[in-house]
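To assess whether ligand presence alters the predicted conformation, the chain was also submitted together with guanosine-5'-monophosphate. Input:
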Amino acid sequence: MITDRPSASVSVGADPFLLLILSSPSGAGKTTLSRRLLARFPALRFSVSHTTRKPRGGEVNGSDYHFVTRPQFDTLVENDAFIEWAEVHGNRYGTALCEIDRARAEPGCAGMIFDIDHQGARQIRAKKPDSVAVFILPPSMTELHRRLRGRASESEEIVLRRFQAAKIEISHYGLFDYLIVNDDVDTAFRHLEAVVLAERSRRSRRADLAEQLLRAGTLS
Ligand code: ADP
Ligand code: 5GP
């Protein structure tokens, strides 16, 4: 018999815990949009990466990044502490497995946001096929350059290096489920919000609830 219902004997759902990957060329607006997303969805947590990059003015250790030395980073790699890691713009960045475990164990936590590059996105997607990957595009290369320069926390050399790497980052857009253009920030945010709302309602994330309802007893 052909049925449109999955077998009730197996768990039909994807992991309801949302793993949301945000990538973009540097300066396109990931940090801006992820901060807004965290304010809008308090049940989501930001995955604080480890990096060998030096802190920018105003960045807080343990909150923006875990700032570590290169030997410390390499020891973490040797100990398989990362779900993914990569070299980006001459520094190393990685997502510690314990970040995800900690968030999962936290009551009421519904998912995590990963601000990572395409190499990290590829590694997480390979290990967590249920993850959702969003790529933020700048409206133009000219505007991207303006934003990179406007950040004012980096030297002209670093700005140029990041700008030159932008097209390589963009060339990996095919890895992502959604492409969002960050021209007007409010519009871009609305689109990102819509992705989160839609992904929460994805059938595979809600199927276990549907099956529970079907198994529930009737009122006597
Ligand atoms: P990323 O995290 O991708 O490197 P940021 O969020 O730090 O990018 O944004 C880079 C710069 O561009 C910041 O100065 C930010 O305030 C600015 N910015 C972000 N989104 C917009 C936008 N839609 N319009 C104009 N400026 C923006
Ligand atoms: P920034 O130095 O501007 O904070 O980040 C530079 C790049 O590194 C960005 O593309 C950012 O998404 C990426 N990045 C930050 N954390 C991680 C991480 O844990 N893993 C990977 N692969 N990339 C990261």
